[in-house]
Amino acid sequence: MGGGAARGGAIANQVLSRASRIKTRLESALEATALEIEDVSSRHASHAAVKDNNNETHFNVKIVSNKFEGQSLVKRHRMVYDLLVDELQSGLHALSIVAKTPKETDMVHLKK
Predict the structure, then answer these.
(1) Under the phi-then-psi rule, with left for phi > 0, alpha for psi from -120 to 50, and beta for the rest, what region is 42?
(2) Whose CA is closest to 34, among 81, 110, 80, 101?
């Protein structure tokens, strides 16, 4: 019975969109309190790196997590990239990342 569940999970992973897989991975690993994922692939369709009209190649990611506390911007981005290495190796070409802590998002709201 356990083997069937594992196979079912693998099949489900193939059916999910890249955006859904990114969302699931980042929410669980970074315990995101806010997460926005925008597929901007259509804006890059003519780029040489986008072959055979592949979709889901370029994304904007905005994520808020307590796990970014005390981490530099470079480290935060590395945390996201490390979690998405499988996607990067299977067709994800570019990510634009905004990674903040909850305190930093509160500061932005206070300034407005």
Answers:
(1) alpha
(2) 101
d(CA 29, CA 99): 14
Mean pLDDT, all residues of the chain? 81
| 44: its two tokens | 């890059």
pLDDT band at 11 (very low <50, low <70, confident <90, very high): very low
Q: What is the CA radius of gyration of the chain?
A: 16
Give the β-pairing of 58-64 and 94-100: parallel
Question: Could you tell me which of 45, 50, 46 has the C-alpha nearest to residue 92?
Answer: 50
Q: How many CB atoms lie within 10 A of CB 49?
A: 11
pLDDT (tens digit, 9 = 90+) per residue, 51-62?
Answer: 555 578 889 999
